[in-house]
Amino acid sequence: MRHLFLILNLLLVNATYAEIYKWIDENGKIRFSDKKPASAQVSIINVKQQNRSTRDEQPIQKILEQKKPLLFRYYNAALKTDPTIEGSVDFIIDIAPSGAVIKAKIISTQINDQKLLKEFLSVIKNVDFGAKDVKNAQVRWSVQFLSM
To answer: What is the spatial distance between Cα 26 and Cα 114, in angstroms, rounded to a whole number?
Structure first.
């Protein structure tokens, strides 16, 4: 009996239910929402949602480290124009379950070369982290660029 109780608890923890409301609007169109409309007769649809896990940070960091040579190629090209460029670049990267980058932005940097920073963002936005059955992920990543 105790084992059955434990199994049921585990199943309930891994699955939640959401209510979706269905109604016909004043134009005769069928509408769906997770918020109940004030002035309509609705049908409630229960949708089972799986609690997804999160991405492991180690594979994300490994993939980002593999992109460093490309970032440094852009950096070294920019050094030919301005040999004083140096500093760190801190990125925030949002990753979809598909592995695509949803959004990438630079949150801080000492580098003032806007063209170079756009090239860095272009590299990051095109990274494919691989599809996983996980929630959206957000990671912070920093790279240090020093001129020689």
So the answer is: 51
- The answer to whether the CB of 145 falls within 8 A of the CB of 86 is yes
CATH number, domain 57-145: 3.30.2420.10
Query: How high is the pLDDT of residue 48?
Result: 58
| Mean pLDDT of all residues in 94-110 | 96
Helix (H, G, I), strand (E, B) or coil at 22: strand
Instruction: Let me know: does 60 contact 101? Beta carbons within 8 Å.
Output: no
User: According to CATH, where is 3.30.2420.10 located in the chain?
Assistant: 57-145
pLDDT, tens digit, for every residue of 34-93? Answer: 777 777 677 777 665 556 788 999 999 999 999 999 999 999 999 999 999 999 999 999
Name the strand (E) or helix (H) holding 45: strand 43-50
Cα(68)–Cα(120) distance, rounded to whole angstroms? 10
